[in-house]
Amino acid sequence: MKIRGRMILSAAAVYNAAWVVLLLFRPGTILLKSPPLFGVLIAGIGLVGVAFVVCAVKPRRSLLALAIVAKIGGAASFVFAVGLGYLRWSQWWVPVFNDLVWLPPLIRLWKQMGRS
Question: Please, are residues 12 and 70 in contact by the beta-carbon 8 Å criterion?
Fold first, then answer.
């Protein structure tokens, strides 16, 4: 994997780690109320971050595919979070910057891994 790919994955890992810290120490900054499985949400975000670190060090296409699916699921869950009262529609930027913005470079890396 080229250095650019490693940098993208490292940036994604740092970004996920920042969200874990934010949700652990300042959940009210984003969430209107804590969901019942709040710990699972934080663990999931952290595990995806670990997957990015592992892929940056030793590329694993299947692990990156799992992280991509998690990003798609995160974006899709925004609608449910709004419906359940955990987020507002005005917080559209949460799935855009947490999930959707990462999809093109991650998918491109996943495709490159398949060719090498």
Answer: no
pTM summary value: 0.87
Quick check: 20 and 46 in contact, CB under 8 A?
Answer: yes
As a residue count, the chain comes to 116
**Alpha-carbon gap, residue 25 to 108, rounded angstroms:** 33
Euclidean distance between the first and final Cα of the chain, in Å?
Answer: 8
Question: Over the stretch 45-101, which tens digit does the pLDDT of each residue have?
Answer: 999 999 999 999 999 999 999 999 999 999 999 998 899 988 999 999 999 999 999
Sign for the pseudo-dihedral over CA of 43, 17, 69, 90: positive
In angstroms, the CA 39 to CA 44 distance is 9
Distance CA 59, CA 36 (A): 34
